[in-house]
Design brief:
Length: 435
């Protein structure tokens, strides 16, 4: 909820980019709830290289591999997603050699080429929320895994029959892929199977985790269950278009047994009796029901806790955006900006409005008589954005029609980005420094 309501921005007080809940007064009760739970929204974590590894190893030694694998399996459905980080954390802590900070390069002396540690602060509550949602720290991040193990305490989860079925179903999806399928298509197939609700980002991240531990790792690019690989080695990719690190960067569905390293999987999860799943057979009923799981019930809890924003008036006039329109865009609950439509242009049979931000940030949706018909430039000068679907975008309203072009000291440029109108919320930060 904080992520949706609060901008991710530079904070002078902590000298880092983070979510700042105090910018939204409506979130004060929720911030208080987090503090009572031991998760101060303003708390940050900054740890040196050696201390980072001391922390990770001290927490990992409390786990054996079997318990870590069971926690991973339980996180597939019945347990909060944070338990998924335990297995890669334990493998990382036990496989990594003792080493000193080895700078990546002269220009990047704040990052270790052996483990990927880098200097900087983390917003603790943001890390916690990511882990509870089931994502693991990217790229074998030792700081992130050390934090993750600090939250996986208390009674440890036991994988249920349904948890094991889900893990078996994931295996079945991977093994059913056509030969040479790459990670992006594999993520699409995983989502299409509807075994576990996840967006595309989460699906790719889950595949990255399976690759990091070794289940989706080519033999020549092993995962942590086989041996430790340095951050520099993991940062190698087939080409610049590949985003995930190794091992997933080098994986395809012809690796191992139809994309799945049975030998590594059995070494890690063999004691759990993960079933062979027939994807054509009827799917068992989830236990517990989806709405009782952490992620399944999240949307309802967010709706219940989110302060209801006041309703705003409907757009004036009817029909799509037109030249001379002024549209108000809500950037935050307490901040609205406006854009002027210079003309409508077609691109691939879709109408795009050529828009320019107007001066003024308003605490509420402005009316026509409040408009400031002066262009609001970026620091680099006057700019335009070509956007579609203004009339269909939530929290965007037409507040005036037939208005004259805004005053400006510079010529209106022709070049600009082309995107959906919802992106105006993010683009506004380039034109309004106060946002």
């Amino acid at each position: 909820m904080i992520r949706k309501r609060v901008p991710f921005e530079w904070d002078d007080a902590t000298e880092m980019t983070r979510f700042v809940p105090s910018r939204d007064a409506d979130l004060a009760p929720l911030a208080g709830m987090l503090r009572e739970a031991g998760l101060d929204p303003d708390a940050t974590d900054e740890v040196g290289h050696d201390s980072c590894w001391d922390r990770l190893r001290a927490r990992a030694v409390q786990w054996d591999l079997r318990a870590a694998a069971e926690a991973f399996a339980a996180s597939m459905w019945s347990a909060p997603g944070g338990w998924r980080s335990v297995l890669p954390a334990v493998l990382l802590a036990t496989s990594a050699p003792e080493h000193e900070l080895t700078p990546w390069s002269e220009q990047s002396a704040d990052m270790c080429e052996v483990c990927g540690w880098r200097t900087g602060r983390r917003q603790v509550v943001d890390e916690w929320a990511s882990r509870m949602a089931g994502t693991t720290p990217l790229d074998g991040d030792p700081i992130g895994y050390g934090l993750a193990l600090s939250w996986t305490v208390g009674e440890r989860p036991v994988a249920t029959d349904y948890d094991r079925w889900v893990l078996g179903a994931v295996r079945a999806v991977i093994k059913a892929l056509p030969p040479q399928t790459r990670h992006a298509k594999a993520a699409d197939a995983l989502r299409a199977a509807k075994i576990v609700p996840m967006d595309r980002y989460a699906a790719v991240g889950f595949l990255e985790t399976l690759a990091l531990v070794g289940v989706l790792a080519p033999i020549e690019r092993p995962g942590l269950a086989e041996r430790f690989t340095t951050y520099r080695e993991r940062d190698q990719r087939p080409n610049v278009r590949v985003e995930p690190q190794a091992p997933l960067a080098w994986w395809n569905s012809s690796v191992g047994d139809r994309g799945w390293r049975d030998d590594v999987f059995d070494r890690l999860f063999g004691s759990l009796d993960v079933p062979v799943v027939d994807l054509e057979a009827p799917q068992p009923s989830p236990v517990p029901p989806s709405k009782e799981t952490t992620l399944g019930g999240l949307a309802a809890r967010v709706r219940a806790l989110t302060p209801r924003p006041p309703k705003v008036a409907a757009s004036i006039g009817t029909g799509p955006a037109a030249s001379g329109d002024v549209w108000a865009v809500r950037v935050r609950p307490d901040a609205w900006v406006t854009v002027y439509v210079h003309e409508i242009m077609l691109s691939r049979d879709r109408p795009y409005a050529k828009t320019e931000f107007l001066s003024g940030v308003f605490p509420q949706m402005p009316s026509a008589d409040q408009l400031v018909m002066v262009g609001q430039p970026r620091t680099s000068g006057r700019d335009v954005n070509y956007v579609h679907s203004l009339e269909k975008t939530p929290w965007v309203r037409r507040v005036a029609q037939g208005m004259p072009a805004p005053h400006a000291s510079e010529t209106l440029p022709e070049r600009g980005g082309w995107q959906a109108a919802k992106q105006l919320v993010h683009l506004a930060g380039w034109n309004f420094t106060e946002l």
